[in-house]
Amino acid sequence: MSIFFNFACGLECSESDYLWDNHLLERIKNMLLVTTIIKPHKFEDVKGALIKSGVAGMTISEVKGFGRQKGHTETYRGSEYEVDVLPKIKIEILSSDEYVESIIETIQASANTEKIGDGKIYIQKLEECIRIRTGEKGKEAI
Fold first, then answer.
1. What does the H/E/C string look like for the chain?
2. Pick the CATH number of 11-141 from 3.40.50.300, 3.10.290.10, 3.30.70.120, 3.40.47.10
3. Is 0.70 surpassed by the pTM of this model?
4. pLDDT tens digits, residue range 29-82?
5. Closest CA to 32 of 99, 94, 104, 103
6. 11-21 pLDDT, tens per residue?
């Protein structure tokens, strides 16, 4: 019987305990959060394309921000105003890593206007996901 050191709790564990922890780590490392920030007028195109590609759920937020685009000047009732924080849409999608490339390609194809300010896509590893209603964890909760 092999003895392994469990870094999570600082205790010695048997090989079967280690394999269970290894399985847990495999499950966790395969969960990702895809976050994209896009132009508001592209939202329906992106949402439709994601649903068509098989995405079953997403979280949408109206946000404001700026990047290289910086903003623009608008005229209202004869006065000029500098608009330096622009409205954007933030979409968050939980996914297992096997679908992430497809999600990225779908977002890029449907959000691209070939103009500055089209947005960004961020990928983050998730430590854990838990469905509140059932208590399911990991991929099963996504």
1. CCEEEECCCCEEEEHHHHHHHHHHHHHHHCEEEEEEEECHHHHHHHHHHHHHCCCCCCEEEEEEECCCCCCEEEEECCEEEEECCEEEEEEEEEEEHHHHHHHHHHHHHHHCCCCCCCEEEEEEECCCCECCCCCCEHHHHC
2. 3.30.70.120
3. yes
4. 588 999 999 999 999 999 999 999 999 899 999 999 888 766 667 777 888 877
5. 94
6. 444 444 444 45
